[in-house]
Automatic annotation (TrEMBL):
PROSITE patterns: ADH_SHORT. PANTHER family: BENZIL REDUCTASE, SHORT CHAIN DEHYDROGENASE_REDUCTASE (AFU_ORTHOLOGUE AFUA_2G00830). It comes from the Eukaryota. This is NAD(P)-binding protein. CDD domains: SDR_c (cd05233). GO terms for biological process: secondary metabolite biosynthetic process.
């Protein structure tokens, strides 16, 4: 890791993480805890939040650990919580990870397109959960008691589904596509307003989290554990990468990049949308993917 990244994960710095009671959020909190950071852990599951605090974060040294139960989709709850956090951590937030996400399904008997509430609930958590957090706490990252311009970071957890856009859950895909756009604009603005604050879009691969435990009692061989995602995230933060595109045990970084390039080419080439999943395009995609070249992209990196 570079010194810059090490300075973010430093003893006495403060990390605030949403969705902290499980999965990638919990694994990130454990990484921060291992560096002696103060933790502000947010989640909607009060029982789980209490359990993980007791078992994973015993009080040690001078670090402080506070937990807050919050529905991240509620702007009011963020507005009520923000003053408490700012009062408890007047030096500001050094590492902000907005990581909440949820998958909803249409009501029984309805399709995606019949159920407006399915879209509303999905966007409320997966998109507004991020913008609410930024509106409430961004000033604590960029301005509060940061006269020495110490390195700080913001991570927003996105999804490959928001980029390659596979069929089956349009609201989830669209909500995560919005997170990507938000993160890109935030990175652009922070480069001018607060160059000491790096912004990163975490794009996990197949990760064995609470989303999958109902379908898989044990981790599938193709999936990564959340700790592996965090290891990869920290490595790419050290390289100052904005897009942290995680592989897994089935899909390589190269294959991910080819899939993204193919998806984008639907637009550029004037093809129908979602050709990778269309039956009438099956053979064209098979042949075409074999000839997707990343050489020009690599030269631009």
């Amino acid at each position: 890791m570079t010194p810059a990244t090490l300075s973010i994960f430093r003893k006495g710095a403060t990390a605030l993480i949403t969705g902290a009671a499980s999965g990638i959020g919990l694994a990130t909190a454990q990484r921060c805890y291992s560096h002696g950071m103060n933790l502000v852990l947010l989640d909607r599951d009060a029982t789980r939040l209490s359990q993980i605090t007791k078992h994973h974060f015993p009080p040690e040294g001078t670090s402080t650990i506070t937990t807050h139960v919050i529905d991240v989709s509620s702007r009011l709850e963020w507005q009520q919580l923000a003053p408490q956090i700012k009062s408890s951590h007047p030096q500001g937030i050094d590492f902000l990870m907005l990581n909440a996400g949820a998958g909803f399904t249409p009501q029984e008997g309805k399709t995606f397109w019949d159920d407006a509430e399915y879209f509303e609930k999905t966007f409320a958590v997966n998109t507004l959960g991020y913008t609410n957090g930024l509106a409430a706490l961004l000033d604590s990252v960029i301005t509060v008691d940061n006269k020495n311009e110490a390195e700080r970071a913001i991570v927003l957890t996105g999804s490959k589904q928001g980029i390659t856009n596979p069929p089956s859950n349009p609201a989830y895909n669209a909500s995560k596509a919005a997170v990507r756009t938000i993160a890109e604009h935030l990175s652009f603005d922070m480069a001018k307003a607060a160059p000491n604050v790096s912004v990163h879009l975490l794009i996990p691969g197949w990760t064995y989290t609470g989303f999958h435990t109902a379908a898989f009692r044990e981790k599938p061989a193709g999936a990564w554990m959340p700790e592996e995602v965090v290891d990869f995230m920290v490595e790419k933060m050290a390289e100052k990468r904005f897009y942290i595109l995680c592989p897994d045990n089935e899909v390589s970084e190269e294959l991910d990049r080819k899939r993204i390039l193919w998806t984008t080419s639907d637009l550029v080439e004037g093809r129908p949308p979602l050709t990778r999943w269309r039956e009438d395009w099956k053979e064209k995609v098979r042949v075409g993917m074999e000839h997707v070249s990343l050489n020009g992209m690599d030269k631009l990196n």
